[in-house]
Write a structure and sequence with these properties.
This protein has 409 residues and is α/β, with parallel strands linked by helices. It contains 13 helices and 16 strands. Among the domains are: 141 residues, Rossmann fold (3-Layer(aba) Sandwich); 119 residues, 3-Layer(aba) Sandwich (Rossmann fold). A 7-stranded mixed beta sheet has the order 6-5-4-7-8-11-10. The chain has a 5-stranded parallel beta sheet with strand order 14-13-12-15-16. It starts with 11 loop residues before the first strand and ends in a 9-residue tail after the last strand.
């Protein structure tokens, strides 16, 4: 396989999680009587541009299907994050009724609803029909398509260029990162800004966040790597913010490299220096990640087996993609984890891919009253602890997947 950005031959393995189905390919009753498509789940590192990427086995159309079940609006903390973003961007870039905001991967309209409330013209681009329809139900204009040069050229020719383009948690999801980014350079107005949010590779490695790896994430990103990728596709990074979302993310502020006049903030070279000091452009940085993933997998299995031996019941909360990665890597099945609760009605009544653990609503949790509730989306721990505080009423305990080792003898 060759690097999806620079074309360099990929030979260095970073992480091998065996095989797994697509993390968002939830099953219904009829699927249980048939086989699933499992693909190798392996990360490679380009030793030329240092882009970390999956070994490709599935197309974007297979991974982001019309009935895609991830809806952003079911997380209250993520909605608050989106509203805070809109408020900050409106003030920083003086957006008003004469501006236009475009969000790529608009999902169910979780963010553009706040742009619309401010009276700022906007539209979204979203390839999955299920979430696009949810966004339209909010009165938003949505182009149901994958984004790249072809769509950007068409939109620009129709006078739909943008003052602000938003790309939250989508840059990692695109197989052709060059075509995707060139589309932004084409659709931005000369003085426009595009922001990109994504999980930070540095935090992922330093904190052993291996369960953020799944087939839908084609790339794992650092500023050191991205600065050059952006420049080669007509964009310049002029500022960066470090965020707490998704276990530690970056928000890059970019402008057209041929027309943008905003000075580069000191935060950009500062963070690149921090990444290089950590060794992000060296083989040693990636060397022991596999061993740490195996250790966390063993800790989860030990926790579940000890709970079973002690006669304790364990339920899980959050039918999240990261949870599917962990459960399938560990080989967990309903005999050790009988159900997972999720607030999203689109997931309830279905089954997790691979493990085939049933997804139930919150009433099931209240009726079962388990001894432990395992929080699969550990990045939402604060929100979920508030939401599930009632578990303590029957003496139950909440624990995240990354902390099960803390309760083992």
């Amino acid at each position: 396989m060759k690097c999806r950005h620079c074309g360099h031959e990929l030979t260095r393995s970073f992480l091998d999680l065996g095989t797994a189905p697509a993390s968002n390919a939830y099953l219904d009753e009829s699927n249980l009587r048939s086989s699933e498509m499992w693909h190798p789940l392996r990360l490679l590192v380009c030793e030329s541009c240092w882009l970390v990427q999956t070994e490709d086995y599935a197309s974007r159309e297979d991974l982001f299907s019309p009935d895609y079940a991830y809806f952003s609006s079911y997380s209250s903390s993520w909605l608050a994050h989106a509203k805070g973003y809109v408020d900050a961007m409106v003030e920083r870039y003086a957006l008003d009724a004469c501006s236009r905001v475009v969000e790529v991967a608009a999902n169910d309209g979780y963010l553009l609803q706040y742009v619309q409330e401010r009276g700022i013209p906007c539209y979204g681009i979203e390839p999955t029909h299920s979430t696009a329809e949810a966004a339209r139900s909010r009165g938003l204009s949505i182009y149901e398509s994958f984004f790249g040069v072809e769509l950007a050229t068409s939109l620009a020719l129709n006078g739909l260029t943008a003052d602000l383009m938003v790309a939250n948690n989508v840059l990692a999801h695109v197989p052709d990162i060059n075509d995707f980014l060139r589309g932004f350079a084409l659709l931005l107005k000369p003085d426009g800004v595009a922001t990109f949010e994504f999980p930070h590779l540095l935090r992922m490695v330093q904190e052993s966040q291996f369960d953020t790896v799944y087939h839908e994430h084609y790339s794992y990103l650092s500023l050191h790597c991205l600065e050059q990728i952006f420049l080669r596709n007509g964009l310049q990074v002029f500022d960066v913010e470090q965020l707490t979302t998704h276990g530690g993310s970056l928000r890059l502020h970019t402008q057209r490299s041929d027309a943008g006049r905003r000075p580069v903030a000191s935060a950009v070279p500062s963070l690149i220096a921090q990444e290089r000091a950590a060794g992000i452009d060296s083989q040693a940085f990636y060397a022991d990640f596999q061993a740490r993933a195996i250790e966390l997998k063993c800790q989860l299995l030990t926790f579940l087996l000890q709970a079973r031996s002690a006669g304790q019941r364990v339920g899980a909360y959050g039918a999240a993609a990261k949870g599917n990665t962990l459960l399938n890597f560990a080989g967990v099945r309903p005999d050790l984890l009988p159900y997972v609760v999720d607030r999203n009605p689109a997931k309830q009544g279905k089954y997790l891919p691979g493990s085939r653990i049933p997804i139930v609503n919150e009433d099931h949790l209240r009726a079962d009253r388990p001894d432990w509730v395992l929080l699969l989306p550990w990045n939402l721990e604060t929100e979920l602890r508030e939401q599930l505080a009632y578990v303590e009423d029957w003496g139950g305990k909440l624990i995240t997947t990354v902390k099960v080792g803390e309760v083992l003898p």
